[in-house]
Batch of 2 targets.
Target 1
Amino acid sequence: MTKNPSDSYTLLTDIVLPSETNSLNHMFGGELLARMDRAASIAARRHCNEIVVTASVNHVSFDKPIPLDSVVSVSAKVSRAFKTSMEVVIEVWIEHPKKGEKYKANEAIYTFVAVDESKKPIPVPELIPVTPEERAHFDAALRRKQLSLVLAGRMHPNDATELKALFL
Ligand SMILES: CC(C)(COP(=O)(O)OP(=O)(O)OC[C@H]1O[C@@H](n2cnc3c(N)ncnc32)[C@H](O)[C@@H]1OP(=O)(O)O)[C@@H](O)C(=O)NCCC(=O)NCCS
């Protein structure tokens, strides 16, 4: 059975409490990482309907600070499925507490692996991208996977063909 990215779409919305902020009254980076991990793990589970574990946090950019009392919405969608792993693209949107306007504060890419009860990786369904944006994420995902594997010491740079092609 194949799935589309929209099958895994997940949106988590919550506010920023005082205990989740630093001395500038901005949200802790670690708190945001946890919220992104939660949303992304639900998206990965919706794609494969199996137990999933976080294999890597491939790319996180903290572009804008998130003030105390903001409404924070974290969206997550599987962008590509490989054999047992899935790449999930995450976006963080903020509603300013007083102005009410919405803006995108952060983006991240996480990788999850589906595992069985004995923690052994198991195959996941194929993902078919639909929209132009989903196709762009799908196409770039192999490059990101190879970069992540090279950085983790799991792939020799010579074998990262998609990644090398960027520099040729
Ligand atoms: C992630 C984990 C399941 C991988 O298990 P493994 O025995 O090394 O299995 P494999 O080498 O077959 O890797 C499984 C898949 O993960 C991918 N993978 C592993 N590490 C990766 C990384 N750093 N970046 C991207 N993909 C990675 C592999 O490429 C493979 O993908 P594919 O099957 O789709 O091609 C295992 O390392 C694990 O359980 N880690 C702990 C997870 C966890 O507890 N997370 C919460 C953190 S507190």
Note: The longest helix spans residues 29-48.
Target 2
Amino acid sequence: MLMATGALTGAKALSAASLNTSSGRDTASRKLIVTGGHPGDPEYGCGGTIARLTSLGHKVTLLYLNNGAWQQISAATRISEAKKACAILGADSRYAGQVNGNAIVDNAHYEEFKKLIEAENPDAVFTHWPIDNHADHRAIANLTYEAWKQLNQRFSLYYYEVSDGDDTNQFPAPTHYVDITTVEDKKQAACYAHASQDPKYFFALQDTVAQFRGLQCRSKRAEAFLLQLGSATDVLRSLQIVLSG
Ligand SMILES: [Zn+2]
């Protein structure tokens, strides 16, 4: 059940001291994870939001299902690009150890992925929208959802969109919009850090999505999210970087 901000209970409850009473902003440092099929996915889908969160002092980890090695492009290249992108966004990176283009979703991998998430003890997790043309994206959305369920839905779970039409399909009406206008350059630099992945084409596509989402919430550029019903909290909204929705 979705509980109203301020009515939270348990270990993740906000203490009175964590609220700046003049602005009402929740200033407690939070731990957020963005899961993605490949290096680059979290940056394209949520790079602006990640930059805004880390600039407010929150800790963000980008958790990739695999290292992105493919044909002539080595794991070392992809990992080094991801490291650069994360440094630009002020985030950390982790890998779930699967193989690009060969995602496995079974009980053993559900368990392994749940343990990874549990050890990080996040306040919120972002993942791909599960209807996606890339099997690796669908896989990590599935693994993330199962971890959320097995961990008693205790963290906020959000879906993000990436390369709409190419990857994400049928993304529903968003519940949250984050204005990324002021961090647009950082997002672009993080996406372009993935130089082996044709950023000219893919960033232009994602930027069109950001402009469309901006139109919907009266900003220049925005990222849109969908909160999973049943999340015990809505951390993004409590941090007051959500515009509307
Ligand atoms: Zn991908």
Note: Helices lie at 41-55, 75-89, 107-120, 135-150, 184-192, 199-216, 235-238.
